Amino acid sequence: MITASDIPIGEQFSRHIICVTGTMAAGKNAVSDILARHGYLCLDADKLVHQVLALPDTQQQVLQAFEGAAAARGISLTTADGTLDRRALGTLLFSHKALLAKQEALVHPKIDALIAAFIAEHPSENIVLNAAVLYKVKSLCVCDTIFFVTAPLFTRLRRAVRRDNLKKSHILARFWQQRNLFAKYKNQNADVYKVSNTGTIQALEKKVATLLEELKS
Predict the structure, then answer these.
(1) Is residue 100 classed exposed, middle or buried when 0-12, 13-18 and 19+ CB atoms within 10 A define those classes?
(2) What is the pLDDT of residues 104-115, one digit of tens each?
(3) Angular region, 116: left φ>0, alpha ψ -120 to 50, beta rest
(4) How far apart are CA 130 and CA 11, in angstroms?
């Protein structure tokens, strides 16, 4: 498992590892894309979750762990070809903290290993870890900076409705679950910056560029 001590002291201070996080539809991906244009290597932890859940051994572990609970709720966890149905799994875990914690115990160590491998493979590059819930994995300890992206609720709702094929009630329920997300990051051993994404992409680019200049100084 990766820890801050796994990175040589010189490397810790010669590059930046930034966690880009924030609530749903605030603009994490937009900020990550801007940082990529500034030369950062970006790793999307949400995509890592999909990658881990696509592994045959992970699918077997998840099905063994949750098929009983899913059947009790009338949910099938497999698709027509017998593979894991991630959307059905999400429906099962949504609002069930105990089941979610059980799934995270299976998946998070594998995500940590992938993040550690990515960082080790790029020892000199600046890196962005893009994830809403990176605070739940130990890899957060290697981030020296956190960009917490924010936007007004109705702006996020409009974006989420346009982007996701979900009911407004479901989106708002997810917003409610994330209501204390900033508190999970503000006490981390890293510099935390709020990035307000309320205007144009050009305005957001200027804000990120200003923050990067501050980090360099």
Answers:
(1) middle
(2) 999 999 999 999
(3) alpha
(4) 20
